[in-house]
Each structure stands twice: as C-alpha cells, then as structure tokens.
Amino acid sequence: MTTRGEDRRGMGGVRRIGLGVLAALLLSPTTHEAVAVAAAAPRVVATIAVGTGPVGVAIDPAAHRAYVVNEFGNSVSVLDTRRNAVVATAGVGNEPGGVAVNPATRHVYVVNSKSNSVSVLDTRRNAIVAAIAVGSNPVSVAVDQAHGRAYVTNGDSNSVSVIATRSDVVLATISVGNNPYGVAIDQARHRVYVTNRDDNTVSVIDVPSNAVVATIGVGQNPIGVAVSQDAHRAYVTNYDNKSVSVIDTCGNAVVATIGVDNAPYGVAVAQARDRAYVTNYGSTDVSVLDTRSDAVVATIDVGNDPSGVVVDPTTDRAYVVIYYSNSVSVIDTRP
C-alpha cells in the first residue's frame, strides 16, 4: 500500500521504546530479591539506502528478496534480505507507488500513478516484461495467488482493475467508493478489502463474482489495509484520526478502534506473532499492535516519515520504507 508524494503531507501516541530494552522483574535465586533482567525489544538492526522517494515495499520470502518502489526515481530497488543490500535496480513507469509479488509466476507488479499503468517485473532477470494499462491514477496493488488475480486501485476512476496474473491482461473493472487507495486480500474468505479515502469507507469485493458485497464505515481518510487470515480481522489506518479500525471479516463490521501516532499510513500483519505494524507518517515511528488484545504494545523509532511496511514471516523482520531519507529500516521484531 502506497501513495503519491503530494498525499503524504501528514499531520502523540504511546511512549517510545526506540532501541532500548524492557526490564522484567525476577527473584534472585540466592537473595530472593527482585532483580532487573533485560528483555530485548523490537529494534532497528539495519538501514539500507535505496532510490529517491521510496514509498512501497513487498517481499518474496522464499527468494530472500524485497522490492522497494522509488516514486521519484521511477525505479524499483531489489534487496537481498540475507545481506540487507541492494542487488539490482529496474526502471518502471512514471511515479510508481504500489507493489506486490506473485511468487507463483515470479512476477512483481508495480503501479505507475502518472502512467496509468502497471509494470510487470520478471524476478529472474530483474527486467520489465509487460506494461498493463489500468484506470486513472492507480495507487495500490495486491495479488491473490489462489485465484491468479491482481487487484489495482484506481484513485481518480473510483474503480479496481482485476488483472489475470497468468496472461497479464485486465479481466474486469469494479466500481468502488471515492478515491480508492489501499487494497488487501482475504484468501480464506475470498474477499478483497479496498479503502476509499474520500468516503471514509472500505469496500468489500467478492472474488468469484467481482461484485461489491459490503461497504464498511471506518475513520477519516483511510489509507492502508492488511488482513490477518487466522484472526479473521482487517486493519485499516485512518490517516486523519490517529487510529486503526479493526474489522471482523466474518461480519464485515468494525469491532475496535486503536489509537496510534500521527498520520498512520501503512500496515502489515505478522500472523504467527499476533502482531500488526503501523507506520506513522506524521511521526518517526512504527506502532506495534497486539492483535489479540487490540492494544499498542510498543512504539519503535525508525526515522522521519515512514510509509510502506512489510513483514518477512520466515525471519521475523519488518522492512519499513523511510520516504524522505531514501532508505529502508529493518526491524528485528522478536521480543
């Protein structure tokens, strides 16, 4: 989930833990007195320089690659996640933003907002192999591997383009709310969740029928969305409300609202750890949510204007794009 530079001008939250540690109280085995034992907190372990104006990030865990979209560089930086190093750079269209990986076809989909297109990157050669015309001002993209589809939000067309990932052609165009932005897939329930910025809503699309089956009211200026399959929850960042709306995907209703820091933007879920990570674009931090209690349990300093975020489930590392620093902060999420 990403956005254009002019949309990212943001407007505190919980106490920051930065790179410090938390202390746990235990009894000394010899004196039976309380002693402080350091417990590691989530922390930034690396910073990687990328292109100009990085906004979006996606990951292919099996290939040990992350793909960072550079909005003003009109490029994608390819990261080796084992070495935390850029190993290739590929040119794409004008003002790219959203990005998603399809490991099944070894393709990466990059949305070009000013070109009204999606560039298709072959990960074996790190080369562009196709350009797909979509709607006006496309913003974000998500891939449904099970059905072989990619969903692209078109901000100025108030629509979602559905792409067949085997043939890279547009199969359908679905009308949604005003100024659609973020998009996420619920593989378990065969649903697509789309944030509509100007309506303060989320459209729910049924994958088999390509029809909108529900519209859910959320906070002001919803941007990012991520789905936890196991918990049957969708998390929506409300940029103007300093909050995250939690949607029960079984009933398609908001069941909780979590306060975070200024201008929450991107969101990613780590299902195995029962955590969600929210970038606060108007601050310098990432809010860590406990998805069982719907509470903020940590805040991690990462740098000015964090935007996109993704979690590698195989290494428990989160990759946070730092827009104005032209970099990526790598977080070790393990406690």
Describe this entry's structure for a reader.
The protein is an all-beta fold and 335 residues long. The chain has one domain (5-332): Methylamine Dehydrogenase, Chain H. It has no helices and 30 strands. It has strands at residues 21-27, 34-40, 43-49, 54-60, 65-70, 75-80, 85-91, 96-102, 107-112, 117-122, 127-133, 138-144, 149-154, 159-164, 169-175, 180-186, 191-196, 201-206, 211-217, 222-228, 233-238, 243-248, 253-259, 264-270, 275-280, 285-290, 295-301, 306-312, 317-322, 327-332. The strands form eight sheets. Strands 3-30-29-28 form a four-stranded antiparallel β-sheet, with no helix packed on it. A hairpin with a 6-residue loop joins strand 1 (21-27) and strand 2. The radius of gyration is 19 Å and the shape is globular. Residues 1-6 and 8-39 have low confidence and may be disordered.
Which secondary structure elements does this structure contain, and how are they paired or packed?
Layout: E1 21-27, E2 34-40, E3 43-49, E4 54-60, E5 65-70, E6 75-80, E7 85-91, E8 96-102, E9 107-112, E10 117-122, E11 127-133, E12 138-144, E13 149-154, E14 159-164, E15 169-175, E16 180-186, E17 191-196, E18 201-206, E19 211-217, E20 222-228, E21 233-238, E22 243-248, E23 253-259, E24 264-270, E25 275-280, E26 285-290, E27 295-301, E28 306-312, E29 317-322, E30 327-332
